[in-house]
């Protein structure tokens, strides 16, 4: 379980300028949940992870892992608690001169685990990430996805309660990405891990996350279970979770975007569209099943002169409508 409460981080740069990187973050990720953190460059994602691993000291607020508050701990206790947190990075940073097995064994050696116990653990861990037969391979002999698996096994060596992943699949192709995400879910199921994934790819959120938070300039702009935020029609996360292809506009006609799913069943949207009469046309549409809930968006065009009346009639039927800027 990860709990952040009113977390603030203010960096002081040269010339005494202040950068508010995190501006009062409240976040609660229950045990066993996979939570995504998204947001534009500079939103504070990496700062959030650094505060979680206590690499960075928050300016105020608290960070707690499984009920243990990390903020304010002494150096020794902090080091002990850090072992409860596994980290997976975009670039794996394996030791090139060591085999996969030796890389996984490394944190166990540092922690003073005996040789015999280490060998057993490393074999188990490599098995767990699907590399049971590759322990003797050197990093240069492994594919990008296999290296990331070794990185995940290494992160799990100290039996962490929490796995923090910073862009874990950004350097991988789409098939390998899917395999790694599947592995993360399996590990969550088997080990009861709480997982936090920082990503700029909405496909990662769609595929692996139970819940998601959108950060915007250090603040939580939107947060919740995937199906719920996708059903918040017109919201930024709904738009990016259920994207529509760009389409050329038609002269003299205006595009309206309708949302369905969640509390708005498709048949109600379709009936309301049909009731607009013969002037309406379909431009594009998309549907996604997110955490078992179907959510979609439909774009229609109407004559420019009929925008106000069409919008009013659709809204009267309880349909979420927005005009798409040309
Ligand atoms: N050590 C630092 N000193 C001063 N400012 C910093 C420092 N680290 C980050 N910042 C600032 O804090 C803000 C948040 O940065 P952060 O690295 O957390 O963003 P991010 O969401 O991870 O972005 P990206 O997607 O580009 O990695 C930015 O305005 C950044 O310039
Ligand atoms: Mg970053």
From TrEMBL:
Pfam families: ABC_tran (PF00005), NIL (PF09383)
Molecular function terms from GO: ATP binding
This protein's record includes keyword Cell membrane: yes
Superkingdom classification of source: Bacteria
InterPro entries, sorted: AAA+_ATPase (IPR003593), ABC_transporter-like_ATP-bd (IPR003439), ABC_transporter-like_CS (IPR017871), MetN_ABC_transporter-like (IPR050086), NIL_domain (IPR018449), P-loop_NTPase (IPR027417)
Gene3D superfamilies: P-loop containing nucleotide triphosphate hydrolases
Domain ABC transporter: 2-242
Keywords associated with the record: Amino-acid transport, ATP-binding, Cell membrane, Membrane, Nucleotide-binding, Translocase, Transport
UniProt KW Zinc keyword: no
Protein name: ATP-binding cassette domain-containing protein
């Amino acid at each position: 379980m990860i709990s952040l409460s009113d977390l603030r981080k203010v960096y002081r740069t040269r010339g005494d300028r202040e950068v508010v990187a995190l501006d009062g973050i409240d976040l609660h990720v229950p045990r066993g949940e996979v939570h995504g953190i998204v947001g534009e460059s500079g939103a504070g994602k990496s700062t959030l992870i650094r505060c979680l691993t206590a690499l960075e000291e928050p300016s105020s607020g608290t960070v707690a892992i499984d009920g243990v508050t990390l903020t304010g701990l002494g150096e020794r206790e902090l080091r002990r608690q850090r072992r409860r947190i596994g980290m997976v990075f975009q670039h794996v940073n394996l030791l090139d001169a060591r085999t996969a097995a030796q890389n996984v064994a490394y944190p166990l050696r540092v922690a003073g685990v005996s040789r015999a116990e280490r060998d057993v653990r490393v074999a188990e861990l490599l098995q767990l990430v699907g590399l049971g037969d590759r322990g003797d391979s050197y990093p240069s002999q492994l594919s990008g996805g296999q290296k990331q698996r070794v990185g995940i096994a290494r992160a799990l060596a100290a039996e962490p309660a929490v796995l923090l992943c910073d862009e874990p699949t950004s350097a991988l192709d789409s098939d390998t990405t899917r395999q790694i995400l599947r592995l993360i879910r399996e590990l969550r199921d088997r080990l009861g891990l709480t997982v936090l994934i920082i990503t700029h790819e909405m496909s990662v959120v769609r595929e692996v996350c139970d819940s998601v938070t959108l950060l915007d300039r250090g603040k939580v702009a939107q947060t919740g279970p995937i199906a719920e935020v996708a059903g918040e029609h017109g919201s930024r996360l709904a738009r990016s979770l259920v994207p529509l292809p760009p389409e050329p506009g038609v002269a003299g006609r205006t595009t309206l975007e309708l949302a369905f799913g969640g509390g708005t069943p498709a048949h109600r949207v379709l009936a309301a569209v049909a009731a607009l009469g013969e002037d309406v046309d379909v431009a594009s549409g998309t549907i996604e099943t997110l955490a078992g809930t179907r959510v979609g968006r439909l774009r229609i065009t109407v004559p420019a002169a009929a925008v106000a009346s069409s919008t009013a009639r659709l809204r009267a039927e309880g349909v979420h409508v927005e005009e798409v800027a040309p």
